[in-house]
């Protein structure tokens, strides 16, 4: 019911929305919760386990009951708290966890079996038979339990993530937060004021307090207006600070546009911030505790501060006859505010016999609520007083068990709070998060004046730490009421008394956990599921551990709390992972030949982030093998073109470049002549092969190293490490030029013939022999030419600045095709290199040594190098190691499979008889045979032996001959031709 | 987590690559023997407390850093260029 003349809503703008298909109207400034209460809707959800009818409990982000699915279609957002979601025109909200409807929920039958469904029910019940676990029990439990669901469809709503920096981060904008922000701002510090609500002000918006004789919200508006006008202040409302992390980093979730009917097309839904603050002041306020009295979960039973908030901020009263039940003076405010607004107060019930209460309504002291009635909403409560029990007609009960400081962030780095008996609550332990201080109610200072003083004091401490002088700020005149409380953790009585409303955990469950020796608070939590709901125990933790303390005969501080972990409020994975969806997760790197390659319908495969062509199909070809075989034959017989730009290219310069390379490579580069290229092998310090590639000497002090595609980044990092950490006196510098040069292999007997049609100065075999390199010009463009070969053919690689890559690739293809050649892809490249026994990262997979791949002689005896001492360890040069060989099928079955294992012909194919494994296989059209590269125990000594290749998965047993890993042209005549 | 690169200033940890114990700076001589080499390459104390690690400012200036931090309190006690540390140790 709406109350005239109350609230900070805009009554001039009506907003239409729907809940469970029913249309309602609210005002601008309403949340779903306030608008539903204004429309007398009390039933908003069903509990998790018993499917009990539930209504709105709170007015903030701690809401456990009123969770809804907002929106429709792919972007529907489940488990949205009705208390934090603003309404907008056309908003569609639906209740969750019920069938067929909220009012008639079949599974509320669970509620009748409450004696069986107590703590540990699932653990004890769904044990046998084992075969039922996955097929029967789990689907049933999942259907019965659970909250809202995602649509299961692709959601295009965008999220964003961002960094922000400040001197002082103020978290929360109640009295302490506002005064802290104001002090820091006037002092000239860079300030961020973060507020999770849609409006700044905290409790000043929901109370009738005055500051300097002005209504609280007017004072708030004045402060915000001043802050807004300052360049050094960033005001972030709808931004919940969700976690405190190392070195002053805070996570925060900003609701950017999910409160708008027609958000800007470019606006993200949410933004996940990482705020880096030199100092922070936590002014997050406090959260009111419910009381665990029998049948305390009916719709219409709310926290007293929520009832006050709905009245004062939204002009809504959640009932016509409101009763108030509390154990502290603060609860009295609810009764007084209601009475002042003309709402009938059915009774004020205070559990303390000595409570000082006055008011123009029935007052009961030393009394407790012991039962309630009303199936889908509260209709009456039963009160036990010193003189007996009374029944009271009421449709809304406002309860207050006291306040818990919102200290969560102070515990995010393993801190634990300390118990304060005078306010019967945990308060923050100082300095649990470096640079984070706590002020106001979050620190257990509950009066407005106290909060203001505390905020100013903590701001001054933060400014002092930054060496900034705090200006003098007069504090506004504010209330300074004492907070009197006598703890009331549970009310004895017949019915169930709920602690955790969402997860249906009652005082009885906690006691049962204790009785079954789940007496540690962490065990009790997991056994009962208390505190594991979406509110993470904000409403129930302290109450539950008080009941546990009582049941185990311990004090509350001794019982302790569970661990507080981020996030403070739920954060969608979409926001945390913003930008990481689809290709955002793995950006694409394209070669300069990409467009021309795609035009030729080449299927692309990923190589790291790069995309490379598998093969270039011709119209008549129907399988990849046909294309691959043709491309191999083409390279062997005429000329092929392949883009090899993805290989890492590192430009190395300096007087000590040669000495440096001698140290990172196993072989020697200082002896390499200018204008020549050499194959190099690089080890890790533990003696295993790290990478290989060719390095060209372009000048006396200038080398160009190539790495494998996969290792480009790691090798660059390695070179910097060796230089900065081990050889810092060497005068040498490196830079990656991978993307600056487009480089193409021109391979085959007709390669020189092709090149001479575009080189401005033709080359001869003598003038440009095998492994020669140097500058050339082609068609007027400066280029580099390397006579190197990964195919075993007479071949070159030609490099041009990347901007010419596309043009040169197209030009080379046209010329190759005129000579009967063409482009070749990764499949053919792989066949060509296996035929020649050249290794790739398939072979140098991190567990092989130079010895294993037959390159032990490349480890120079004349000098030290990275990995050399460790590579000499006995275990790494044992002849029995699995070492590189070639294999060829010689029996009936011809198929070879990479990953299959090798066994001696008469051995059983089991692990203990393992002789090695196959690493790379192909069909060689040149030799008309399947070929394999394999690692075989003592392989080099076993050429000519017969070995069995066994693949248990494919049920293959293939008789093979062990041979030299170079299948073709062992002497390398072709490359020199 | 944030680290102060001596060249670039304080940066988010996402800009850095972590490699491990700063013992990697102290490469033994080739003939130092198995014990020295095993300690250099493999043997590590898994300390709860102050550690000295090598980090690489990969998305920044490419500097290798020695970061001294406390794995219990998460405090970063100091950061220095690995080359400076190495030079200091050599003196």
From TrEMBL, chain A:
InterPro entries with a match to the protein in the record: 2Fe-2S-bd_N, BFD-like_2Fe2S-bd_dom_sf, FAD/NAD-bd_sf, GcvT/YgfZ/DmdA, GcvT/YgfZ_C, GcvT_C, GCVT_N, Sarcosine_oxidase_asu
Signal peptide: none
Keywords of this entry: Oxidoreductase
Pfam families documented for this protein: FAD_oxidored (PF12831), Fer2_4 (PF13510), GCV_T (PF01571), GCV_T_C (PF08669), SO_alpha_A3 (PF17806)
Domain SoxA A3: 494-579
Residue span(s) of domain GCVT N-terminal: 594-863
Highest taxon listed in the record's lineage: Bacteria
Family, per entry: Belongs to the GcvT family.
Organism lineage string: Bacteria, Pseudomonadati, Pseudomonadota, Alphaproteobacteria, Rhodobacterales
Domain Aminomethyltransferase C-terminal: 883-969
Bilayer-crossing regions: none
Name of the protein: Sarcosine oxidase subunit alpha family protein
Automatic annotation (TrEMBL), chain B:
Protein name: Sarcosine oxidase subunit delta
Lineage of the organism: Bacteria, Pseudomonadati, Pseudomonadota, Alphaproteobacteria, Rhodobacterales
Gene3D superfamilies in the cross-refs: Folate-binding superfamily (3.30.2270.10)
InterPro entries: SoxD, SoxD_sf
Family matches, as Pfam families: SoxD (PF04267)
């Amino acid at each position: 019911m709406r109350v005239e003349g109350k609230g900070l809503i805009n009554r001039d703008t009506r907003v239409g929305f729907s809940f469970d298909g029913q249309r309602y109207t609210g005002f601008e400034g309403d949340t779903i919760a306030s608008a539903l209460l204004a429309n007398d809707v009390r039933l908003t959800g069903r509990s998790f386990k018993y499917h009990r009818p539930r209504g709105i409990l709170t007015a903030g982000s701690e809401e456990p009951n009123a969770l809804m699915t907002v929106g429709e279609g792919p972007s529907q957002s489940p488990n949205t708290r009705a208390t934090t979601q603003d309404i907008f025109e056309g908003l569609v909200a639906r209740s969750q966890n019920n069938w067929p409807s909220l009012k008639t929920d079949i599974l509320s039958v669970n509620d009748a079996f409450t004696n069986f469904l107590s703590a540990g029910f699932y653990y004890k019940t769904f044990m046998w038979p084992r075969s039922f676990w996955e097929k029967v029990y789990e689907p049933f439990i999942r259907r019965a339990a659970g909250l809202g669901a995602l649509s299961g469809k692709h959601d295009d709503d965008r999220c964003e993530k961002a960094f922000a920096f400040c001197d002082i981060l103020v978290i929360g904008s109640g009295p302490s937060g506002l005064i802290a922000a104001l002090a820091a701002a006037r002092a000239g510090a860079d300030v961020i004021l973060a507020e999770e609500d849609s409006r700044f002000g905290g409790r000043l918006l929901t109370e009738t307090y005055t500051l300097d004789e002005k209504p609280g919200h007017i004072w708030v508006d004045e402060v915000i207006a001043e802050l807004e006008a300052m360049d050094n202040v960033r005001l972030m409302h709808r931004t919940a600070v969700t976690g405190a992390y190392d070195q002053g980093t805070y996570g925060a979730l900003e609701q950017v546009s999910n409160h708008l009917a027609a958000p800007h097309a470019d606006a993200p839904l949410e933004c996940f911030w990482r705020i880096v603050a030199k100092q922070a002041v936590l002014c997050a306020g406090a959260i009111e505790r419910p009381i665990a009295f029998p049948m305390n979960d009916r719709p219409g039973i709310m926290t007293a501060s929520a009832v006050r908030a709905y009245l004062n901020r939204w002009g809504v009263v959640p009932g016509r006859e409101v009763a108030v039940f509390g154990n502290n003076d603060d609860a009295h405010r609810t009764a007084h505010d209601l009475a002042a607004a003309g709402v009938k107060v059915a009774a004020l019930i205070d559990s303390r016999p000595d409570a000082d209460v006055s008011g123009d309504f029935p007052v009961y002291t030393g009394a407790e609520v012991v039962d309630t009635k009303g199936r889908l909403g509260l209709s009456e409560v039963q009160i036990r007083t010193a003189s007996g029990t009374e029944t009271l007609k009421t449709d809304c009960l406002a309860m207050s068990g006291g306040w818990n400081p919102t200290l969560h962030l102070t515990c995010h780095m393993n801190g634990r709070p300390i118990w304060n008996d005078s306010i019967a609550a945990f308060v923050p332990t100082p300095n649990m998060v470096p640079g984070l201080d706590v002020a106001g109610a979050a620190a257990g200072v509950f009066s407005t004046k106290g909060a203001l003083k505390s905020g100013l004091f903590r701001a001054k401490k933060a400014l002092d730490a930054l060496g900034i002088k705090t200006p003098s700020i007069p504090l506004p005149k504010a209330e300074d009421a004492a907070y009197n409380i006598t703890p009331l953790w549970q009310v004895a009585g017949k019915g169930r008394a709920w602690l955790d409303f969402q997860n249906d955990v009652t005082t009885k469950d906690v006691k049962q956990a204790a009785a079954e020796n789940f007496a540690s608070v962490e065990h009790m939590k997991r056994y009962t599921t208390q505190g594991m709901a979406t509110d993470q125990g904000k409403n129930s933790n302290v109450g539950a551990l008080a009941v546990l303390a009582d049941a185990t005969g311990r004090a509350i501080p001794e019982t302790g709390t569970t661990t507080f972990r981020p996030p403070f409020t739920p954060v969608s994975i979409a926001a945390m992972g913003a930008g990481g969806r689809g290709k955002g997760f793995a950006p694409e790197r394209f070669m300069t030949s990409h467009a021309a390659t795609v035009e030729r319908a080449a299927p692309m495969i990923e190589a790291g982030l790069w995309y490379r062509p598998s093969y270039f199909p011709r119209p008549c070809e129907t399988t990849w093998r046909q294309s691959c075989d043709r491309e191999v034959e083409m390279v062997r017989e005429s000329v092929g073109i392949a883009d090899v730009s993805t290989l890492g290219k590192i430009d190395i310069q300096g007087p000590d470049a040669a000495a440096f390379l001698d140290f990172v490579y196993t072989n020697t580069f200082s002896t390499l002549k200018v204008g020549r290229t050499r194959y190099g092998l690089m080890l890790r310090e533990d003696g295993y092969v790290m990478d290989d590639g060719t390095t060209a000497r372009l000048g006396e002090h200038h080398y160009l190293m190539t790495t494998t595609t996969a290792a480009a980044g790691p090798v660059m990092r390695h070179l910097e490490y060796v230089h900065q950490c081990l050889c810092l006196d060497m005068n040498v510098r490196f830079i990656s030029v991978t993307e600056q040069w487009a480089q193409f292999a021109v391979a085959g007997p007709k390669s020189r013939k092709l090149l001479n049609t575009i080189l401005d100065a033709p080359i001869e075999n003598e003038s440009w022999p095998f492994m020669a390199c140097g500058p050339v010009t082609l068609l007027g463009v400066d280029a580099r030419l390397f006579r190197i070969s990964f195919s075993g053919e007479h071949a070159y690689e030609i490099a041009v600045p990347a901007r010419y890559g596309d043009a040169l690739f197209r030009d080379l293809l046209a010329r190759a095709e005129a000579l009967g050649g063409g482009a070749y892809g990764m499949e053919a490249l792989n066949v060509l290199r296996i035929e020649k026994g050249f290794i790739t990262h398939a072979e140098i997979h991190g567990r092989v040594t130079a010895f294993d791949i037959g390159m032990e002689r490349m480890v120079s005896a004349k000098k030290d190098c990275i990995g050399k001492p460790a590579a000499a360890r006995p275990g790494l040069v044992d002849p029995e190691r699995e070492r590189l060989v070639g294999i060829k099928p010689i029996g009936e079955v011809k198929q070879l499979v990479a990953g299959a294992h090798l066994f001696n012909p008469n051995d059983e194919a089991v692990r203990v008889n393992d002789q090695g494994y196959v690493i790379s296989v192909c069909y060689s059209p040149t030799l008309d045979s399947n070929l394999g590269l394999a690692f075989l125990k003592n392989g080099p000594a076993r050429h000519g032996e017969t070995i069995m290749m066994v693949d248990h998965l494919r049920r293959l047993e293939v008789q093979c001959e062990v041979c030299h890993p170079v299948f073709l042209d062992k002497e390398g005549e072709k490359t020199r031709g | 987590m944030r680290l102060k690169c001596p060249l670039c200033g304080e940066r988010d940890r996402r800009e850095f690559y972590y490699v491990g114990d700063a013992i990697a700076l102290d490469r033994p001589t080739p003939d130092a023997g198995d014990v020295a080499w095993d300690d250099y390459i493999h043997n590590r104390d898994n300390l709860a407390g102050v550690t000295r690690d090598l980090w690489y400012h990969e998305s920044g200036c490419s500097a290798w850093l020695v970061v001294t931090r406390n794995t219990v309190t998460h405090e970063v006690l100091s950061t220095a260029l690995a080359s400076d540390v190495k030079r200091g140790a050599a003196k």
